[in-house]
Specification:
Layout (H helix, E strand, L loop, with lengths): L3 E4 L2 E4 L4 E7 L9 E6 L6 E6 L10 E3 L7 E6 L4 E6 L8 E7 L3 E2 L3 E6 L1
Parallel strand pairs: 2-11
Antiparallel strand pairs: 1-3, 3-8, 4-5, 4-9, 5-6, 7-8, 9-10, 9-11
Length: 117
Amino acid sequence: QLQLVESGGGLVQSGGSLRLSCAASGYTLDVYDIGWFRQAPGKEREGVSCISSSGRSSGGSTNYADYVKGRFTISRDNDKNTVNLQQNSLKPKDTAIYYCRADGGYWGQGTQVTVSS
């Protein structure tokens, strides 16, 4: 069974940057659509960004929620078998637990991102 592990979260000041990674062992992430989601305290989980699998005609295509567009970048590192989320110009409202998800309903345990003002 596919298992996902997120890393890279932490505490950063407003305007700072973080790079989140979603890793898997035993399975090649390149064949999965991968999404990043986040959940802030007291709020529902929401989508942040996604990248399509290499097997699709649109392989590698990316999408972003409006609230992160221009600040976050999703990418694959196939050598490391990871999907990364580069977060720049972070804002306090970006504070949340960030999760990655692979199609088929596989979720990681999440990584906490806290942005101080």
